[in-house]
């Protein structure tokens, strides 16, 4: 195509199931089948187990994995996150994670992150600031290398109640 623009086509179908175990625990399962012009067919499945620890604390263990025609094995990530409500539309998240790819390097990264979230200007506009450190392997056979992450993100909420 002219100008080096190569469009990507994407289609997906999703299944979501929420199961509650009392008032303090929930299990969320999601499976998404997809086709991408650059990946072919694939499936991403995830599961999150939430446990309310108190009025301001939520503990979540989440795992996600993807297989597709171009991946060699399962591309996976697992995390344990403690969410803390700081009130007045502010919150913190404390996360430890591990990720990898089966059949290749296995473990590709592990580390931790701190995420601070606050609404700004409007009740529906949120800013996230992130600070993290992880040990990352970019290529099979190479040692893990330490890396620092710093980030800033935003989220806009739409719909009723915003």
Report on the structure:
This protein is mainly beta and 162 residues long. It has a single domain, classed as Porin (Beta Barrel). Helix content is 0%, strand content 69%. The chain has no helices and nine strands. The chain has a nine-stranded antiparallel β-sheet with strand order 1-2-3-4-5-6-7-8-9, with no helix packed on it. A hairpin with a 3-residue loop joins β2 and β3. It is globular. The termini are far apart. The mean pLDDT is 88.
How would a textbook summarize the main sheet? 9 strands, antiparallel
User: What is the number of beta strands?
Assistant: 9
Mean pLDDT: 88
Strand content: over 45%
Please tell me the total number of domains.
1
Structural classification:
mainly beta
